[in-house]
Amino acid sequence: MDALDRGREAYRKRAWADAHRLLDDADRDAPLGADDLERLANAAYMLGRYDEHARALERAHLARLEAGETTAAAHCAVWLGLTLSMRGELAQGSGWLGRAQRLVERERHDCVERGYLLIPAMREYEVTGRFEDGCRIAADAAEIAQRFGDPDLLALSLHQHGRFLVRLGRVEPGLALLDEAMVAVMAGELSPIV
């Protein structure tokens, strides 16, 4: 097996250091395609190499755009926006989320990325204490996740909805949603970053 195949195998096994090293080596030999750039980005993130994560995900985004994969490019942009915002790089994060929104709107068809684009609003509602509004938008995101069979968005939405309910004093149903989200984590159903 060459470095790329070994890197993919290490990624599948969640051996992040090996996956990162091997995929990075393969990228030096020949530029990686979008799927492998996303793997490289995730491996870098899991190792705390956030700048490398952003660079690889930007390249994956551009590769998706060049291939005419607008929705997949929007997905990369969403994750860039979310991860940069979580790191406190709010201007860059907001810019990437805006790009994702524009790409999704341009496609004019329903897609799971519309649900991911609700996550920043959930955070805003939590910070501003608008927990009832947060419950509604988290439920909307969960419905989108279920419609598209996206376990990551579903877990994130259930988790946030549970937090809103707890903050509203509805502890029992809130904890039930938090427990449901944790089942997906423990079952290994989610992507590495989630």
What does this entry look like structurally?
The protein has 194 residues and is mostly helical. Helix content is 79%, strand content 0%. The chain has eleven helices and no strands. The two termini are 30 Å apart.
Per DSSP E runs of 2 or more residues, the count of β-strands stands at 0
What does the main sheet amount to?
none
What is the typical, i.e. mean, pLDDT? 96
- In sequence order, what are the helices and strands, one letter per element? HHHHHHHHHHH
First CA to last CA: what distance?
30 Å
Keywords:
194 residues; mainly alpha; 11 helices; 79% helix; globular
In brief, what are we looking at here?
By secondary structure, the chain is mainly alpha-helical.
Q: What is the fold's blueprint, element by element?
A:
Elements (H helix, E strand, L loop, with lengths): L2 H10 L3 H14 L4 H13 L3 H17 L3 H17 L3 H18 L5 H4 L2 H10 L2 H18 L2 H17 L3 H16 L8
Helix pairs in contact: 1-2, 2-3, 3-4, 4-5, 5-6, 8-9, 9-10, 10-11
